Automatic annotation (TrEMBL), chain A:
Keywords: Cell membrane, Membrane, NAD, Quinone, Translocase, Transmembrane, Transmembrane helix, Ubiquinone. The keyword Disulfide bond does not apply. Its EC number is 7.1.1.-. It comes from Filimonas zeae. NDH-1 is composed of 14 different subunits. Subunits NuoA, H, J, K, L, M, N constitute the membrane sector of the complex. It is found in: Cell membrane; Membrane. It comes from the Bacteria. The chain crosses the membrane at residues 15-34, 81-104, 124-146, 167-185, 197-217, 254-274, 286-309, 329-348. It is a multi-pass membrane protein. Pfam families: NADHdh. This is NADH-quinone oxidoreductase subunit H. It catalyses: a quinone + NADH + 5 H(+)(in) = a quinol + NAD(+) + 4 H(+)(out). It is an enzyme of class 7 (translocase).
Automatic annotation (TrEMBL), chain B:
GO terms for cellular component: NADH dehydrogenase complex; plasma membrane. The gene is nuoA. NDH-1 is composed of 14 different subunits. Subunits NuoA, H, J, K, L, M, N constitute the membrane sector of the complex. This is NADH-quinone oxidoreductase subunit A. It comes from the Bacteria. It is found in: Cell membrane; Membrane. The chain crosses the membrane at residues 25-45, 76-97, 103-126. Its EC number is 7.1.1.-. It comes from Filimonas zeae. It holds the Pfam family Oxidored_q4. The lineage of its organism: Bacteria, Pseudomonadati, Bacteroidota, Chitinophagia, Chitinophagales.
Amino acid sequence: MNLLAFDWALLIEKLVLIAIIITISLVVAMYATYGERKVAAWMQDRVGPNRAGPFGILQPLADGMKLFFKEEIIPNSSNKFLFILGPCLAMLTAMMTSAIIPWGSELRIGDRVISLQIADINIGILYVFGVVSMGVYGIMIGGWASNNKFSLMAALRGASQVISYELAMGISLIALLMLTGSLSLKTITEQQMAPGHYWNVLYQPLGFLIFFVCALAECNRAPFDLSEAESELNMGYHQEYSSMKLGFFLFSEYINMFISSVIMATLFFGGYDIPFIDESKYNPNLMAWLGVGALMVKALIFIFVFMWIRWTLPRFRYDQLMNLGWKALIPLALINMVITAVVILKYFN
Amino acid sequence: MPLLNVLLTAAPAAASSASNYFPIGLQLLFAIGFVATMMVGTHLLGPKRRTGDKLENFASGIESHGDARQPMAIKYFLVAILFVLFDVEVIFFYPYAVNFRGLGWSGFWSVLMFVGFFAVGFFYIIKKGALQWED
């Protein structure tokens, strides 16, 4: 019965939304590569890409096309199935996390209310963690299947780094969850928008800091880019890859950077909340669009900070990285959690 | 009859909670389709001029020796095991954090005990040198 009374309009609405969101995240990832090179150039007093189109604006398209038309190489000694599976998995997990992010409030078209979130599930954050930890398989499988010593070493490093920082990331979020009492990203955003309530970063500054550092490590970004330490590993876990399979690895990294920026903006910086404005007083459709814009601006600021850090700080050594993750961030996150619990129970309950 | 009533009223509720996940399935299909299309596309578009030298593993220009899948440092394995151990403990905090205000102080003391166990295990592995990276 329920299956027959299926809401076809909903299906089409969701499909359109999925197509738009995935396209946006791909385009943002493409232009993040361009942005990265421009930011690097700016910081090093260079010009950066400026040949393809005005200001080099077509450079990412040229790079993508080049990767498409390159020869596909699968080394003889590699495990062919896993070799292809690795980049596919990396890309797949990068594309899946956007499903539970509330990109904006609601659009009203006629009497139909369209939520700008693909799926509002009540375990949102756990879903993110689940998908993110799948991402490590892409690196690990890619590195192992290549049957190259450098790749394998890079993959091992990458995998152990990602899982180590996942612990601190998980604990740092618990303090935030105590504040919100919900795992749904939509609820968390709405709480921050409520009058008299500020952005979570004001209540959880230490939690945010830990989360941010862990997000850098999870995305394999400098100063934690040990799995891509080209000066000691030739290139990294994707050394044997070419054509779009290499493109997938590089691309998924930028998508992950975008998605984690959006998640940080949602959890700690009010999501699609426009600061100092009471959204309920204005036209809801207009505010929904402006909200999407606000979230994008926050995400772009985070992406810029990611790049800024990459071109400013040198790379960590492996033991420093592990010591920071295990011996500094985990105890700090635990202490933050206990202090948050005491303060909330004592003063706000 | 009452049983039937329960079944009839329970069914839509269960369906609606499962239907929340339906768009995620859609997105998975979409993503798989995208990845598969790109992979087939790049396979068909690129040139194919295979030679034995090209298909060998790259080792900075010198000939590669032996298989890469040799025994690795045990430290990596240890990290993986410790991750599994501690991640399970972290997951136990999640239901507590969500119901934290309702449980009040009594819940807090119980969880503090759990944090204590966590900390004891943590100090044990540090003292054992499981997280010691330099020899």
